[in-house]
Amino acid sequence: MGSERPLRFVVSGLSKAEIARAVEQTAGDRAQADIMTDMEGARAVKNGDADFFVGSCATGQGGALAAAIALLGYGNCVMVGGKNASRADIESKVLSKNWKAFGVRTDQVEMVVPALVDTLLRRTG
Amino acid sequence: MHASLPIAVLAGAAVCGWSSLLMHRGVANFNDGVRPVVGEWAQGNLGRADLSQIAWDVSRKFIMHESPFMAVSALMLGWPLLLVADVIGARLSKPVPAFIAGALWGCLLALLVQGAYLVLGSLPTGIVHPMMAAFGIALLGICAMPIVACGSQFGAPAALTAGVVSALSWVVADRLHGSAGPGAASLAGLLVLVVWSIVTDRHRPAETDELFTPRTWRIRRNIGWLIVQGALVGFAVRSFALSWNHTDLIAVATGHRIVAAALALVMVFAFWPSSVTSATSTGVYQSVGLAVSVVVAYLSPNPAVAAALCALVMPCEVLLLRSMDRVLGRYPTLRGAAESMRGAYELVVPLSVLAGCVLAAGMLLPGGLGTLLIIALVVVNERYTHTFSLFEAPVVAAVGVGLLANALLHVGLRT
Question: Nearest-CA distance from B38 to chain A in Å?
Answer without folding.
Answer: 11
